[in-house]
Design goal:
The chain is α+β, with helices and mostly antiparallel strands and 488 residues long. The protein is built from eleven helices and 31 strands. It is globular and about 95 Å long.
Length: 488
């Protein structure tokens, strides 16, 4: 999960909103099971049996469409909004299925695997016709699910105690969303949720990841008796952040804490692309053309909140803390503990637009909101009233030798300034902009590289968890215990 990218969803009900539950959502599942959406809104789905013996069953009628063993290939396509057409090894079945079919193992005690979109997954597969599109959902025990999550998230090479911390955090995260489902499933497989690589990732990760999951079996994090939203990210850049400064919501166990151990990423062997050092410290530069292309990409991906300010002339960053006690939310006159940016005003020739908190990262595809912006046109002017910074000379005039206001160097594209090293030519408008930042992800909850660093220093997984989720505030409200079911 940079994480992997997590959101708090606010649902506003106007008059009366009727939401019809999906068929998959109505299936009773065990306390230790979870519904993982492998993909959604598909026009068709194909899967093959890799290991074990399965049967494909219509959920509503319990009609068995046949047993399946290794190399059996099934294809499912929606028919209208309430039926499914099944094909076995290329041969369509004569009878349509209802809106939901289940591929389930005949002997759950054995290793049972199916392949979907190039990856192997354990146990049960649900395929549902939802308004003419298919949702493909893996029904699996939480512990087996974690075998394919922990290594994908924190890395199989992490120290044992860091692996255990990730196992508890990921289990907590998944079960929280099982208790608070937003759709006809509990979690997805991308960084919007937490990365799930299925059985293939389980094999790649090896026995140490499996041991970390097994040794913490069933353990989750509670705060004041309720299972927490265990957000996490790759690297906080040295300091995590208060939840309200990244999203609006105040969460008592997601508070800013120092994380100097994040620097462990710099001491790790550098791999292709500068990873993992660039999870701690990074730069991203744009020429003016590259900046315009990035804005085009952003506007395509986020058409509901476009950036249309003409030619960009300047950017102004604010780092003020959100007042968690205000309603509606307002800012305090103090900076965020981690120095993350909470507002970025982008000024152009056709106006300005401001982006807020974690949404700032999307505009320029930044690794975090902990950054500074530098322009090649930036100058600092000192006077008796203090320092003034300019990134563009638009609207800036100078007092000439004759005492009159004059435009800087007339119509030339450059002007000259005097600094400590002498007279220096400067562009009137920037040609290059550099974002220099720290951290990777939203910066809330556990830092994965910080957890690695703490484990190397001798911290156990419980100490790591309590550091990140309650800042070692031993008020008795934050506990780690076995999951016992709904805590709402």
């Amino acid at each position: 999960m940079q994480h992997l990218s997590k959101y708090i969803i606010l649902v506003i009900i106007i008059n009366m909103l009727v939401v019809l539950p999906s068929n998959a959502a109505s299936i009773p599942i065990a306390l230790d099971e979870i519904r993982v959406a492998l993909n959604t809104e598909l026009n068709s789905a194909e899967f093959a049996i890799e290991e074990g013996n399965y049967e494909l069953v219509d959920y509503l009628t319990q009609l068995n469409f046949g047993d399946s063993s290794k190399n059996t290939i099934w294809r499912v396509t929606p028919v209208g909004k309430g039926s499914l057409q099944l094909s076995r090894n290329g041969n369509p079945l004569s009878k349509l299925a209802g809106p939901l079919v289940i591929l389930r193992p005949k002997d759950p005690t054995q290793l049972n695997l199916f392949r979907f979109q190039g990856k192997r997954y354990r146990d049960t597969l649900l395929i549902e016709n939802t308004n003419g599109k298919l949702n493909v959902i893996n029904l699996i025990s939480v512990e087996k699910y974690l075998y394919g999550v922990v290594g994908a998230e924190i890395g199989a090479s992490a120290p044992d105690e860091a692996l255990k911390a990730q196992a508890v955090v990921s289990r907590t995260y998944a079960l929280y969303y099982k208790e608070h489902p937003q759709m006809g499933y509990d979690v997805g497989i991308s960084t919007r949720w937490q990365v799930y690589g299925g059985y293939d990732m389980e094999v790649i990760s090896g026995s140490r990841v499996k041991n970390a999951v097994d040794s913490t079996r069933g353990q989750v994090i509670y705060y004041d008796g309720r299972i927490i939203q265990a957000f996490f990210h790759a690297n906080s850049g040295g300091f995590t952040e208060n939840s309200e400064n990244v999203w609006w919501a105040y969460i008592p166990y997601i508070r800013a804490v120092p994380a100097p151990e994040d620097i462990y990423a710099l001491n790790y062997p550098v791999q292709e692309g500068g990873w993992p050092a660039n999870t701690y410290q990074w730069t991203k530069s744009f020429t003016l053309d590259e900046l315009n292309k990035q804005i085009e990409i952003y506007n395509r991906d986020y058409p509901d909140n476009p950036l249309n300010v003409g030619k960009i002339m300047d950017m102004k960053a604010s780092r003020l803390c959100v007042d968690p006690n205000s309603s509606p939310r307002q800012y305090l006159n103090i900076n965020t503990p981690s120095t993350r940016v909470t507002e970025l005003e982008i000024i152009g020739t056709k106006g300005s637009k401001t982006f807020y908190r974690d949404a700032i990262r999307r505009v320029f595809d930044l690794r975090s909101s902990m950054f500074n912006v530098f322009f090649d046109s930036t100058v600092h002017i000192f006077s008796s009233i203090g320092q003034k910074t300019f990134n563009s000379t638009q609207g800036v005039w100078a007092i000439g030798a004759n005492g009159m206001l004059e435009e800087l160097n007339g119509s030339s594209s450059i002007y000259f300034v005097q600094d400590v090293d002498g007279i220096k030519p400067m562009p009137k408008e920037f040609a290059n902009v550099i974002f220099s930042g720290k951290g990777y992800g939203h910066g809330l909850g556990m830092s994965q590289w910080g957890a690695r660093g703490l484990a190397v220093q001798g911290y156990n997984y419980q100490q790591i968890i309590k550091h990140y989720y309650n800042n070692n505030n031993f008020d008795g409200k934050l506990t780690i215990g076995l999951y016992t079911g709904q805590t709402k």
